[in-house]
Every structure is written in structure tokens, then in C-alpha cells.
Amino acid sequence: MTIGVRCGSCDRELLLVQLVQPSQGFRCLFCGFAFAPGYATVAPGVAARAMAAHATLVTALTELQSMTGDRLRLDQATLVGPLANALPAVDAKAEDPAPARRRRAHRRPWDTTHYRRQPTTGTAKEPNGRISAGLGSGVRG
Ligand SMILES: [Zn+2]
């Protein structure tokens, strides 16, 4: 089972399995682009985890399907949806065979501005005044 990836810099395709050697620094094999700056030591492990989970999922679903046949039909949307949501920047070419898929012209893969903006932010985006006020009261007490 292979998971394909694409370099955000040179746009060439690789396999995730090619990146799981920590000695390689989680970089593009072609152009050397660092895929996870600051996380080069942990990213290969996470990638390996994702591959293992993917294989486990596919194996388990296949097994389940062989037991149930047509008596049980898994809802594909609920299976695939969370995966699609986890990959906001994915090029849907390989995953989504739907003909009506939208394709942005000249979208740069490394452009992350289309990532989901999370409306529910904690204190991270609060004005400094509030944070320091909270900290101050804690220190004083
Ligand atoms: Zn590259």
C-alpha cells in the first residue's frame, strides 16, 4: 500500500515511504526541500504511523467486507470524509474520481492560505492585554 506525496517546492511526486528514514531529514529527494522544518526528527515517525494506520484500516475494512458481503455496506462518505478533511491541501486528483471536482487554476501547492481558518481560537489571538491581565492576577494570588 503506497501513499503518494508531492513536493510543495518542485511539484514532483514521491512516496511517503521514501521519507520515513530519519537520516534523510524528511526532505524532497529531488530538490532537498524540507517538508517539516523544525520537525525533521519526528516527522518520519509520524509518516510511518500514518502509513501503518492506513494499511491497518484498509486491511480491516477488507476483512470486514469479506465477512459481511452485501449484508453490510459501509458508508463511504463517513469513511473517506474525515480523511479528506485531514488533507486540506491535497490535490484531489488521485483520491477523488468525481468529475465535478473543482480545480483552481494555477494553484500553488505550497500556498497554505486556503487552509481551514478556525473560528474558535483560544487566547492565542486575544489582545495582549487580556492575557497579561490573566497572568498578572495569577501571579499576584
Ligand atoms: Zn522537491
C-alpha-based Rg, rounded: 21 Å
**Count of separate structural domains:** 1
Portion of residues in helices? 25-40%
Order of helices and strands: EEHHH
Fraction in beta strands: under 5%
Cα shape: elongated
What order do the helices and strands come in, and which of them pair?
Layout: E1 4-6, E2 13-15, H1 43-68, H2 76-86, H3 128-140
Antiparallel strand pairs: 1-2
This protein binds zinc ion (ZN).
Zinc ion binds near residues 12 and 30.
Detailed description of the structure:
A hairpin with a 6-residue loop joins β1 and β2 (13-15). The protein has one domain (4-110). The radius of gyration is 21 Å and the shape is elongated. A two-stranded antiparallel sheet has the order 1-2. The protein is built from 3 helices and 2 strands, in the order ββααα. 35% of the residues lie in helices and 4% in strands. It has helices spanning 43-68, 76-86, 128-140; strands at residues 4-6, 13-15. It is mainly alpha-helical and 141 residues long. Bound molecules: zinc ion. Zinc ion binds next to loops.
